[in-house]
Amino acid sequence: MPGVWLVYRAVTGGLGVDPVKSLEHALGELSLQFLLVSLLITPLLRYGRVNLLKFRKALGLIGFSYLVLHFLVWLLLDLQLRWGQIGADLVKRPYIVVGFIAFLALVPLAATSFKKAVSVLGAQTWQRIHRLVYVAVILGGVHYVMQEKVWTVESLAYLAAAVILVGMRFLWIRRW
Amino acid sequence: MFKPDLTQADVTPRGLWLNRRKLIAGLGAGSIAGGLGLGAQAQEALEPNTWEEITTYNNFYEFGIQKDEPAKHAGAMETDPWPITVDGLVDNPGDYMLSDLIGDIPTEERIYRFRCVEAWSMVIPWNGFELNKLLAKLGVQDGAKFVRFETAVLPEVMPGVNYPILDWPYVEGLRLDEAMHPLTMMATGIYGEPIPNQNGAPMRLVVPWKYGFKAVKSIVRISLVEEQPLNTWQQSNPREYGFYANVNPAVDHPRWSQSSERRIGGGLFARRIDTLPFNGYGEQVASLYDGMDLSVNF
């Protein structure tokens, strides 16, 4: 688990001289990685006939968990509950707003990730709710690009991956 | 804490390095007695960062945009001899070798706070000399209003300059009165050692009341000019970076608040501290900006 490795390095001083930023960035990146991989499951089935559907939910939930940790590190270790500054950031800073919306978009998914949710909500409603992940990965990629001081290949690659994986859905899904 | 006027207290004799903590405690007490009233945080904050922190966490995009990249790549840069060009409105223009240019200007140690525009900070014991001493040697002519600096562009050893991340060479500038201010220095060392390449060897600018990006590294050209130079970050993104770049908790960067900063070195649970106007050097430099709207001239 990359998370365990991260905690190990955080505790042993392996995250460099600015461990808060390293941890914050690593958690955000891991979250995006897991969410993007979860979006790879369906294309693999359609085009590669590789069935990894049973991992999809776990990948999504791990991605969401890293996002929660990313958010908590920002709140507790980076801004240290300076609520004035946090409030201002959440209103005034576009990249933080974008990231926060991505986080909020995933909350209903995580909340309806238990088995019974499908029968309670009905399959169609449940599915619609879970399409919010498309919004989240696109905004996640945008958030990554926006927080850089200059254009970086890495952040643009994540955004491109998100756009491609979500773009596929527009080809497949007839009725949203 | 810095005294309003520079005194012996600002200089750490070589033999006293081991007693640095005591000395700093003394300086802190002195500044409170002196009525600066900057509070306990500012006092504690003057304990210098470690050599490792200062030399492995660098923004030097010529060597890569990640903060650990300069330390990895900069070793390949040859800094001795170091050619440096002086031109513009000076009595003694020309192509010099750095050692000839510095000549017999003595170096001293200055412990300064260093505040990055990215809202992190350090405390660094620089060795160097006041820029005004060098400018006096060059002979600034009447029409000169600004000093313009350029960083080296060495594609063989600087992986970053092969990409259009910024418009190379890196350019910075100061108004002449800022350049002449006794706090403004040229640094050639840290902790009494020659300045490491990743920190801007063999000579870099240090302007403690401004964001770190003004402190141009590995200088190869100094020009005295009449027009305000277009500095690299302002050119790259004028909405976010200005010419003055004075540390100012009241003027936010468009993408983040500048009201507080994370002092590097405290580990995962280091306390965030309030950012001081002019990075705590307001008493010495605020008058340079009398009558200016600092939210416009950011």
From the structure above, extract its key features.
heterodimer; A: 176 residues; mainly alpha; 10 helices; B: alpha+beta; disordered N terminus; metal-binding (chain A); transmembrane helix (chain A); Fe3_Rdtase_TM_dom (chain A); flavoprotein (chain A); transmembrane (chain A)
Query: What's the β-strand tally of chain B?
Result: 12
**Rg of chain A computed from alpha carbons, rounded to a whole number of angstroms:** 17 Å
What is the arithmetic mean of pLDDT of chain B? 88
SSE pattern of chain B? HHHHEEHEEHEEHEEEEHEEH
- Going by helix content, strand content and strand pairing, the class of chain A is mainly alpha
Biggest interface, chains and residue tallies: A-B, 27 and 30 residues
Distance between the termini of chain B: 25 Å
What is the molecular shape of chain A?
globular
Catalogue the unreliable spans of chain A. none
Q: Report the end-to-end length of chain A measured between terminal Cα atoms.
A: 35 Å
User: What general outline of chain B do the C-alpha atoms trace?
Assistant: globular
Oligomer: heterodimer
DSSP helical segment count of chain B? 9
The tally of helices of chain A reads 10
SSE string of chain A = HHHHHHHHHH
* Number of DSSP strand runs of chain A: 0
The portion of residues assigned to helices of chain A is over 70%
- The biggest beta sheet of chain B, please? 7 strands, mixed
Instruction: Assign a percent range to the helix content of chain B.
Output: 10-25%
Work out the strand percent of chain B.
Answer: 15-25%
